[in-house]
User: Fold this.
Amino acid sequence: MSLVGKKAPVFNAPAVINGEEIIEGFSLEQFIGKQEVVFFFYPKDFTFVCPTEILAFQEKLAEFEKRGVAVVAASTDTEESHLAWLNTPKEQGGIMGVTYPIVADTAKTIAHNFGVLAGEWNYNEEGELTFEGIPVAFRGTFLIDKNGIVRQETINDLPLGRSIDETLRLVDALQHVEKFGEVCPANWEEGKEAMTATKEGVSAYLTNN
Assistant:
């Protein structure tokens, strides 16, 4: 079930911040009323597609920060695993140099509540609790506004890396909508014409484009 238009699930969990410090009780609530958040899940530390995404977000971090947007990552690995990966050089498959927070969802409850856990719990015929699927997170990306409302989400299957430029485009679109009260048409980018949500506005946009 989509979270768009709903409050982002609340959590408190360990996280590594600034690429070097483990803290307890990290929460997205610290951003409420202050800034938007791009909260993204990745499947697992020390893998293959995941470091390309994590490092790509770091390469664009200044662009997100310029827009006043926080970037936060999460996976079902432990905080110790995150820290070890952050201390591993890029040429050895690591993500050294990443500075935004990485949350440790070891109980898998955050991924479950955000609807990105790649499997589910069930009971077998003996009444024993089992897990069907893969106990890691899909590549979920959530754009959360200053009020803590999810305004956009995408969920990719495990092999499908996401586009960080598209995430930036969606941030620009959300901020444009909130600033100007206009709506953003297909393939809209910052600097392009938007339109009013009326028949006249749509007609004018289609005529000019």
About this structure: Residues 33 and 146 are 5 Å apart (CA to CA). Residues 163-209 form one domain. The radius of gyration is 19 Å.
